[in-house]
TrEMBL record:
<feature type="binding site">
    <location>
        <position position="103"/>
    </location>
    <ligand>
        <name>phosphate</name>
    </ligand>
</feature>
<keyword id="KW-0592">Phosphate transport</keyword>
<keyword id="KW-0813">Transport</keyword>
<dbReference type="InterPro" id="IPR024370">
    <property type="entry name" value="PBP_domain"/>
</dbReference>
<dbReference type="InterPro" id="IPR050962">
    <property type="entry name" value="Phosphate-bind_PstS"/>
</dbReference>
<comment type="similarity">
    <text>Belongs to the PstS family.</text>
</comment>
<dbReference type="InterPro" id="IPR005673">
    <property type="entry name" value="ABC_phos-bd_PstS"/>
</dbReference>
<feature type="binding site">
    <location>
        <begin position="192"/>
        <end position="194"/>
    </location>
    <ligand>
        <name>phosphate</name>
    </ligand>
</feature>
<dbReference type="GO" id="GO:0042301">
    <property type="term" value="F:phosphate ion binding"/>
</dbReference>
<dbReference type="GO" id="GO:0043190">
    <property type="term" value="C:ATP-binding cassette (ABC) transporter complex"/>
</dbReference>
<protein>
    <recommendedName>
        <fullName>Phosphate-binding protein</fullName>
    </recommendedName>
</protein>
<dbReference type="Pfam" id="PF12849">
    <property type="entry name" value="PBP_like_2"/>
</dbReference>
<dbReference type="GO" id="GO:0035435">
    <property type="term" value="P:phosphate ion transmembrane transport"/>
</dbReference>
<feature type="binding site">
    <location>
        <begin position="55"/>
        <end position="57"/>
    </location>
    <ligand>
        <name>phosphate</name>
    </ligand>
</feature>
<feature type="domain" description="PBP">
    <location>
        <begin position="48"/>
        <end position="339"/>
    </location>
</feature>
<feature type="binding site">
    <location>
        <position position="85"/>
    </location>
    <ligand>
        <name>phosphate</name>
    </ligand>
</feature>
């Protein structure tokens, strides 16, 4: 299967976002041919700058949100550094940025550190902002699509299956002429929420074929490693016999795997990915305004694509000044708005958040306040 092309930012994404910071409200904030993203009629604007860092999975969505917000709010300056989820969480906990984007919610130890970073010992909260499939992409000449069950995927990425014409791959693709070619798995070199969600899927769905715990760093010595989602996409696209995993807006026109779910194979799409999120409960034991989700990566529900990531916008519930809090509230209200979610979906193929969830998230964002 080939997904519609979205990976127009890739390696230049951060340059484009930083260009927005000098374009502030001008048409220069848009890429060539891009329509201005929709914004709510009564958008709340702030004066000054807002900084964030983190998930490369949401870099294309963040480009869209920053463009839309800055075109509507000429006095606002938003900086987003796509350094990966782990680095973004670290920068937030060190108070180097106002908020973080992360494909993994804060864990228990990070929540403890956040109370030292946030004002008055307040908690940090995880606000889901972006829901998207993680696509498994590959580059094998003459092969446009593949069906792979989770156990086979696990053995490929664990380097137990090393040739594309392996009988286990051929069994699920009987009409495909598979070459006798070495498989080159491309995995993340950085601490990554995309990796944490992908290994979480392998752990939940592949059973003993994946003998590692979920985590943000790749658990074995890589065959080939790359930085960020765009780095993996470029390495897979530029190789031969390569396979990797990326947030779906980075697939461009590359071939993707249909994964085994129950008795069928399911393609990555906004609709199939949203079915996982719609049935996922919030993590128990958290603050009332913390909305970390327990994703069911091991689902066998028909028509459900289980390799999904949710990118959280991680913020303090209380900042040192009301001015800081106002900036975070204003921008996140746009991210969570119907217009913001639809703009990101049009650009990246993400699944817009359900309206009832958006209402709960807006209520939590409204509780973000400043000490001064």
């Amino acid at each position: 299967m080939t997904l519609p092309g979205h990976r127009t930012l890739s390696a230049a994404a951060l340059v484009g976002v930083l260009a927005l910071t000098s374009a502030c409200g001008s048409d220069d904030a848009l890429r060539a041919g891009q329509e201005p993203p929709a914004v709510p009629e009564e958008i709340a604007c702030f004066g000054g700058s807002l900084s964030a860092a983190g998930s490369s999975a949401q870099e294309n969505a963040m480009y869209t949100w920053v463009a839309g917000y800055q075109l509507a709010c000429e006095d606002s300056l938003i900086l987003y550094d796509s350094v990966g989820s782990g680095a973004g969480r670290s920068q937030f906990l060190e108070a180097a940025v106002d908020f973080a984007g992360s494909d993994a919610a804060l864990d228990e130890q990070e929540h403890k550190r956040a109370r030292r970073r946030c004002s008055d010992g307040s908690p940090a909260i995880n606000i889901p902002g972006y829901v998207v499939p993680i696509a498994v992409i590959f580059d094998v000449e003459g092969v446009d699509s593949l069906n792979l069950p989770p156990e086979t995927l696990a053995r490929v990425f664990n380097q137990d299956i090393t040739r594309w014409n392996d009988p286990e791959i051929a069994e699920h693709n009987p009409d495909t002429d598979l070459p006798d070619l070495r498989i080159t798995p491309v995995t993340r070199a950085d601490d990554s929420g995309t990796t944490e969600n992908f290994t979480g899927y392998l752990d939940a769905a592949a059973g003993g074929a994946w003998p590692h715990d979920p985590g943000g760093t790749w658990p074995i010595e890589p065959v080939e490693a790359a930085q960020g989602n765009s780095g993996i996409a470029e390495a897979v696209e530029g190789g031969g016999g390569t396979i990797g995993y990326v947030e779906a807006s980075h697939t461009a026109d590359m071939s993707t795997v249909s994964v085994g779910v129950g008795g069928e194979f399911v393609d990555p799409s906004p609709e199939s990915a949203s079915r996982v999120v719609a049935t996922s409960p919030e993590r128990e034991g958290g603050h009332e305004h913390d909305h970390a989700l327990e994703l069911d990566h091991g689902t066998t529900e028909p028509g459900t694509y289980p390799i999904v990531l949710v990118t959280y916008e991680i913020t303090c519930l209380r900042y040192g000044t009301e001015r800081e809090a106002e900036r975070v509230r204003a921008f996140l209200d746009y991210v969570l708005s119907k217009e913001g979610q639809e703009a990101a979906s049009a650009e990246t193929g993400s699944a817009p958040l359900p309206s009832d969830l958006r209402q709960r998230l807006h209520a939590s964002v409204a509780e973000i306040s400043g000490a001064g």
